[in-house]
Design goal:
By secondary structure, the chain is an alpha/beta fold. It has twelve helices and twelve strands.
Length: 426
């Protein structure tokens, strides 16, 4: 979403750039016709409906900077609008050609509405450490909210939409693709909801965590305000008819795709649905080392106000949740739980069983080993899957947060092959 008018020149696209995009879109179109997609969609739907079967696999959050400099990933368009489309098309094709696992390719290009959002009114100020070749940086956040009086700095955001510009962009993309791909306006699907992960950026990490014990009234007021302004934003999305279905080829939370029979079957091009017809999600990654009782008091009790708005929900990201399954069960519409690399798979599996989907996250550090060892990769994943299978779990395997592959893309390809084979044996 844009906080100011979009300055991108999306009209000044060269004929040579249109030719590039048309050729790439034709490749996407041909792949989308493969019959295997129907079966893969059925598998995602079966899994999200909590029916037993094989594990599903997906790879995301890829270090494209280590791949994009050669071969089929070289970007040729110069116009920014065209280049963004090209990046999407090339990355989609690269993933399909090298590590498709359980991805779905549709003959559709989805374009978001031009949305303007005034934001929450607090500027995030940070001191940055030098970046390295991986693009990873360290930040120290400068507190902007220090006491209760400062909390009112968090403002109610105002949302507006430029439908005229949205339609103009749609027509241009339609002209680019011709008959190769259908162009649809897709509104707001999954909304990333991580209140404390945002609050520590405006109130300071150490300061915020200390406040849970030393200034609980301040911490309660802080999270209460954030949830209040977030719900106000959601209400505006609904009033402006911006919400679209996400029970399809859309990422849910920090996990995989949203296909399910347990949400209404509405065309994905629909604008103006209600939150209860969508997946929702929440996470409190900064609460990794916080006790279950404190997590419930300061996070979950407030996050539930958000999650209750949706039809089905996903909880978690990188935080270890194996010792917090009991409190998560209080989320009545919970369907999927993230089990991150820091979580104890055995404890989590024994507690979850087949009551929720385990969104299992293997450690991406395995892709950064100095010496690539496929036997070790297979052994580690096989052990984790055996534990989950023993407990009758329903599982998706999501490889994410990949900071480096040591500039060896074949590691992703080989990991995908191993994961897909083991998933089919699950």
């Amino acid at each position: 979403m844009n906080s100011q008018k979009n300055k991108t020149n999306f009209e000044d696209i060269k004929s040579s750039e249109i030719k590039i995009l048309r050729e790439l879109s034709c490749c996407i179109s041909e792949i989308s016709k493969l019959p295997q997609h129907c079966q893969t969609i059925s598998e995602w739907k079966r899994m999200n409906d909590l029916k037993p079967g094989r594990a599903l696999v997906w790879i995301t959050e890829i270090p494209w900077n280590e791949i994009i400099e050669s071969g089929e990933m070289v970007l040729l368009c110069e116009n920014k609008f065209a280049r963004d489309i090209e990046f999407y098309l090339r990355t989609t094709l690269y993933m399909w050609n090298n590590f498709p696992v359980d991805m779905i390719i549709e003959p559709v290009y989805r374009l978001p509405p031009v949305i303007y959002d005034t934001g929450f009114g607090v500027n995030i100020e940070a001191e940055y450490a030098d970046s390295n070749s991986t693009g990873i940086i360290s930040r120290h956040f400068v507190p902007q909210i220090k006491d209760k009086d400062d909390i009112k700095k968090i403002k109610f955001p105002e949302i507006s939409v430029d439908w005229e510009l949205t339609e103009k962009r749609k027509k241009i993309v339609q002209e680019i693709f011709g008959e190769s791909l259908k162009v649809e306006i897709y509104g707001i699907g999954t909304i990333w909801f991580a209140p404390w992960d945002w609050l520590v950026m405006v109130a300071g990490v150490e300061e915020t965590l200390l406040s849970l014990a030393e200034r609980p009234d301040f911490a309660h007021a802080l999270i209460d305000r954030f949830v209040e302004v977030s719900l106000y934003r959601l209400e505006q999305f609904e009033k402006l008819k911006l919400l679209s279905p996400n029970n399809g080829n859309f990422r849910i939370g920090s996990g995989g795709f949203g296909y399910t029979s347990d949400l209404p079957d509405i065309p994905f091009s629909t604008l103006g649905i209600k939150p209860e017809q969508q997946w929702g999600c929440a996470t409190s990654q900064i609460f990794s080392e916080v006790s279950p009782a404190m997590h419930k008091e300061f996070a979950l009790n407030y996050e539930k106000k958000w999650l209750d708005k949706f039809g089905l929900t996903y909880y978690g990201c990188c935080e270890p949740l194996h010792n917090k399954i009991e409190i998560l069960k209080e989320i009545e519409n919970l369907r999927k739980i993230s089990i991150s690399p820091r979580a104890d798979v055995k404890i989590a599996s024994e507690k979850i069983k087949n009551k929720y989907v385990i969104s299992y996250k293997p450690n991406p550090a395995i892709l950064a080993m100095e010496k690539w060892d496929t036997n070790f990769v297979k052994s580690e994943l096989k052990k984790a899957l055996a534990i989950m299978k023993e407990n009758g779990c329903i599982v998706e395997i999501i490889m994410k947060d990949i900071s480096t592959i040591k500039y060896q893309p074949m590691r992703l390809k080989e990991w995908a092959k191993i994961a897909h084979e083991l998933a089919h044996q699950f």
